[in-house]
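Before we proceed, please read the two lines closing this message. Let me know whether the structure tokens fit the sequence:

…
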Amino acid sequence: LREVAENDPKEIQARRYLLGLREIQDNPATAQNLINELRAAEGEQGVSWQLHQAVLWLASEQWASRQQDIQAMLEHCWQADYTWSEPVLLLAEMHTKLGNAKQVEETYAQALKRNPSATVIAEKLLILLERQNRFPEAEDILKTMGTGPRTSSAWRVRIALGTGDISRAIHELTLQVSNNEQDVDARIQLAQLLYQESGDTDQAFAYLQEAEAVDPNSRALIVVKASILYAEGKKADAFKLLDDYVAKQQDFAAFWTRAVFLNENGETVRAEQDCQRLLGFSEQGDAGYEILSNFYVGTNRPEQAMTTLEEGLEAYPRSPRLGRRLM
């Protein structure tokens, strides 16, 4: 692609592909050179160079001083093609960084008026409304979405749960389960809600058994099963289930899952040990240090939380989230 671009100053597609590569995005100088070349090839009214320029500026430390230019470029891109979701999502990202929730909502709403079939944008708006507990408005949006039945049903469950209508959520999940023998998540959630509502362990475990037949290594399955066992007074069985899961998986997610369960049920010593084990999974980067630090904060040990963050920054000096936590 580099060779194609170098050999033809008017080649647009190759430069677009290059600007989509992580290694290019991580090198602002190289990215800017390609954007300049793309601008020369497309002309001043071109949309590709303006989109990529907005992306580059939005990712820079000086993005706030460029917000008017970023907005103008992204609006130009969107107005050129109202079915193009990327400029809208980037505009919303900028307004989110500015802390302007109202403008984020208006951006999504305007885009949906122009293109009601933009499901990615509709889902973003649904999530925003859900966070604000505006479930009737979310339901209105859902009725206009052109999504498949599975996505629509999943959102109806979320809205039902948000409004406290557990019976409706159970009804929707029962329909999902009956229509899809492979839907593990629906079976697990249905088992959890049925036990929560009626305490019927037989029915709950029947759905969990169906889920296990499809995906025996599901984290959610293990957590829900352990939670029901623990609630039924079978604490040893619950802990054994988690221990067996960790012994089998021996990965970051398994230790973290057990740590959360142990901590929620008062087993803080064992939970701390699992959190400390997370530091050994280097492929997860700084995540283990953040989790261990959060554990110490939650157990009222601020000095150990601070020490953990400092150790994490020694191991990962460029970690923005550890730096923010330390501040």
